[in-house]
Each structure stands twice: as C-alpha cells, then as structure tokens.
Amino acid sequence: MKYRRLTRQQLEEMHVEFANFLATQKIDAQEWETLKREKPQVAEEEIDIFSDLVWEGVLAKVEFLENVSANHMHLFHLTSKEMKLISVKVNNPEVDLRTQEGFSWFKRNFQGDFVDYLTASKAYSDDPNQDKFELIEQGGQITKGALYRWFDDLIGEQ
C-alpha cells in the first residue's frame, strides 16, 4: 500500500465507486461477500488497492493545503513544478489562530510587530504525490487557496 487505507466512513461514502472498482475486477456483490467471509486477506488487499487509487486521484488534483496551529499557519500552493510555502508566525502567546477570537485578532494585527512571514519553495522529490500526501498526513487540509492567494497578494505588494 502506497498511501493509507481510506477510513470506514470514507469507504462508505464511496460505496458506489468501490462497487464500480470491484466490477472492473470482475467481482460482483455476492462474490464480494464470499471474499470477505472466506478470504478476508484478499478483500483487505482490494480495499488497499482502491484506497491507493482514490488517493492518487485526489493528490493529482490538489493545489492548496493549509496547516494551522495555535501560532503558525503554513499555506501551500502545490504547482506542477514545486511546492510554494507562505509561513505565518504569531508571536503573541495569548493568540490561538485555531479559534474565532484568535483569527479575528490576527486579521486586525496581521501587519503588526507580533506577526512574521516567511516564503519558500521546494522542488518535488521523484514522487510529487507522495510529497503532497506527507503534508496531508502532517495535518495539511485541502483548500481552495483563498488564504494563500490573499497572503500572496499582500506579500507581493510590499
């Protein structure tokens, strides 16, 4: 398995896609039940293969990730050639960016002395999807990139 198995909830949400996947393997509903009962390891392998296929599709399309902690925001733009990062650090221990109050404070003070910015870029390894997956496993959330674009515009104007 290249990535990780989809959660039970994710598999349930994708039951139609999973059924279609099984059909491409020439496994119908009755045979699937038999596999689960008599050859559970084979059934597990089919779930793992399906999970990797889903991850490959998602990772190929993801463009933006956000990883927000109490005093940091790591905003990624995943281009075709490299990973671009805008890192924001809040140097005020009373502020937690994960809360409405903390983010409101940040919006009012983003240009103040208590906020530092850093930008960087990094080329992908030989496996860009694996690089993206690792960022997700470290807490990155797939987004549409509004926050990244806002910061990119802000930093570009300076």
From TrEMBL:
InterPro entries, A to Z: DUF6495
Q: Which organism is it from?
A: Sediminicola luteus
Superkingdom per UniProt: Bacteria
Per the record, a Pfam family? Answer: DUF6495
**Protein name (record):** Histidyl-tRNA synthetase
